[in-house]
Amino acid sequence: MTPTAAEVLMGNFMALVEPPPQESVGDYMASRIAVIGMNSLLASQETEMGAAVRVWENEAISALLSKAGTPSATSTEDLSITALDALNAKLRLVLIAVHEAVEAKGDTALDREILILYQAMADKRMLVLPVMAGS
Amino acid sequence: MSLADQLSAYLGRLWGREVQVLDLARIPGGASRETYRFDVDLDGERRGLILRRDPVGSLIDTDRRLEFSAVQSFYGRGVPAPEPVALEMAETELERPFFIMGRIDGGKAASPFTVDAYGVHAATIGEQFFSSLGIIAKADPVGLPISEVAESPDRAACWSKELDYWADVIETDQLHPQPIVWAAIRKLRRNAPPPAQKISVVHGDYRTGNFLHDGEGKIIAILDWEMAHLGDPMEDLGWAIDPLWGHYDPDKVGGMLTRTEALKIWEQASGLKADVQALDWWSLFNAVKGQAIWTSSAREYRDSGGKDPVLALSGWYTARRHDKIIADRLASLEGWA
Question: Which of A31, B4, B102, B192 has minimal CB crowding within 10 Å?
Fold first, then answer.
C-alpha cells in the first residue's frame, strides 16, 4: 500500500518548501495547507501502527497460504517498513495467484476464508480522519 | 509574462477586443485540472469566469474536449451546468490545453470527508441531486455536442469497455499488489450485468462534493465533468451512491437521502429502472473504478516528487477506505456478511 508515512512526510515538506506563484496564494494555499495537515495526522497513525499491521498481515497471509498448500516466507528480521513491504508484496502476489486457483477450482470454503482475510486486511489498514462538521 | 497577462492576450484575440483579466486566483477543487477564478473587464462591465487548465500531473488522465462538450451538452437543458465559453487545445497560449466557463457565484461544495454536510437541507438537495442525474440519464446523446467527440458503445458492451479500461489503469499504475481489487475485477468479469437500458451521457464523477449549493437548499451548479463519456446510466448511479461519498452516514446515500428514496427519484426523472442486478454490478464496479483512480494518484504522487498533497490523501486514505468498501461488498455479495 502506498505511499508510506515517510514518503508523505517528505512530500509535506516538498509541498511547502517552494513559494507558490502569486495566483496560488489565498484560498488555494489555505486548502493545500489543510490537506497537508490531514496527511500529517494520518502519518501519525501510520507511524504508530504501520509496522505492527504489516507484521500481522504478513503472518496472516502466510498462514492462509500454508493452509492452501503454498507455504511461503512468514517473516523478516528487518522490521523496517521497506523490508516489511517488500515481503508483503511477495506474499500478496502469491495470494492473488492462489485466490485465482481457488476460484477456478470452485473451493468455496477456502474462497470464503480468503474473503474474510481481505476484510481483516482492509480493516487493519484503515486510517481515520477526525470528525469534521460540514458547512 | 504572467498567467493573467497570457490570459488577457488570449481572450483579447478570441473576442477581438481589449480584455483585462482581474483578480486571477487559483482555487481548490477539481483535482484533475488546475482551476482558477478570475474576472474580465469588458468596457467597464465585470464578468466572472473559471479557467480549467491541464495540470502537469493529475489524479486522472482525461480529455478536456470531452469535459467541455459535456458541459455544452447540458448547459441550459434542465441541469445546472456552467456556461461553456472557450476551449483551447493548443499549448502555445497557456502552455497547456485549457477551457474557460462562466463562473457561478454564491455556492459552496461539501467536502466528502465531513459529517452532516447539508444539515436541514439534505433531503431537498438530495432530491435535486438525484433528479438532475436522472435528467442526464434520460437525455438522448444523439445530437448533443458530446456525441461529436465521444464514442458510443454497444449497449451490451458498456460494462466490459469500462471494466477493461479501469483494470488496465490499475495494472499499469499499481506500485504494490492489490489482491482485494483484483478479486473484485475477477468477480465482475464472471458476472456480467444486463445490457444497458439505453446509451446515456455518463457524467463520470457525479457525487457529493462535485456540485455547488447555495446554503439554502438549492443546487446551483453541477461541476467536474472531466470523466464524461457515453455508456450505461447505471454507472453514474452506482458512483453517486458509493459509501465513500456518504459523509460517514451508512443510512443515507451521499449524506442526503435513503437509498430507496434516491433510487425512486432517479427512476422518476430518468424513466429508467434501477435494476437490482445491474446496480449490484455497477456498485462493485464503481468501487473498483475509485480504487483505480486512487492507484493512479499514488503513482503520480511518487513520480512527481510528492509535491501535491491531494494526490497523497487520495492515494492513501481514500484508497484504504475503498479497499474496505470492496472487501465488505465481496463478502456481502456472497450472502454471508
Answer: B192
pLDDT for position B45:
85
Whether residues B316 and A1 touch (CB distance < 8 A) is answered with yes
Residue A135 has pLDDT above 70, yes or no: no
Work out the number of other CB atoms within 10 angstroms of the CB of residue B305.
12
- What's residue A20's pLDDT? 85
Residue A22 has pLDDT above 90, yes or no: no
Q: What are residue B100's DSSP bridge partners?
A: B51, B86
Q: Is B320 on the interface with A (CB under 8 A)?
A: yes
The reported pLDDT for the residue numbered B337 is 62
What's the pTM value of the predicted model, to 2 decimals? 0.95
Grid cell locating A108: 468455496
Of B25, B108, B113, the CB nearest to A135: B108
- CA B334, CA B337: separation in Å to the nearest integer? 8
Cell 461488498, residue located: B329
Residue from B320, B133, B308 nearest B235 by CA: B133
Grid cell at residue B62: 482525461
Residues of chain B neighbouring A32 (CB-CB closer than 8 A): 28, 309-310
- Please report where in the chains the cell 494555499 appears, as a residue: A29
Please report which confidence band the pLDDT of residue B145 belongs to, taking 50, 70 and 90 as the band edges.
very high
ipTM, interface predicted TM-score of the complex: 0.95
Which triple of cell numbers denotes residue B91?
A: 499549448
Q: Judge: A15–B25 Cβ closer than 8 Å, yes or no.
A: no
Contact assignment for A38 to B313 by CB distance below 8 Å: yes
Q: Do A26 and B25 touch (CB under 8 A)?
A: yes
Residue B53 cell numbers, joined: 487548465
The C-alpha cell of B237 is what? 448511479
Interface with chain A: mutation pick from B111, B245, B316, highest number of A CBs within 10 Å: B316
Q: Specify the residue for cell string 517528505.
A: A10
B259 pLDDT higher than 70: yes
Residues of A in Cβ contact (< 8 Å) with B319:
1
Contact: A11, B177; criterion CB under 8 Å: no
Of A13-17, A36-40, B77-81, B143-147, minimum mean pLDDT range: A13-17
Alpha carbon of A131: minimum distance to chain B alpha carbons (Å): 7
Phi, psi of A110 (to 5 degrees): -75, -35
Q: Mention every residue, 6+ apart, whose C-beta is less than 8 A from residue B107.
A: B212, B213, B214, B215, B220, B221
User: What pLDDT does residue B60 have?
Assistant: 55
Q: Which of chain B's residues have a Cβ under 8 Å away from the Cβ of A23? A: 2-4, 24-26, 36
Instruction: Inform me whether the C-beta atom of residue B309 falls under 8 Å from chain A C-beta atoms.
Output: yes
Are the beta carbons of B301 and A134 separated by less than 8 Å? no
Integer Cα distance of B84 and B74 in angstroms? 10
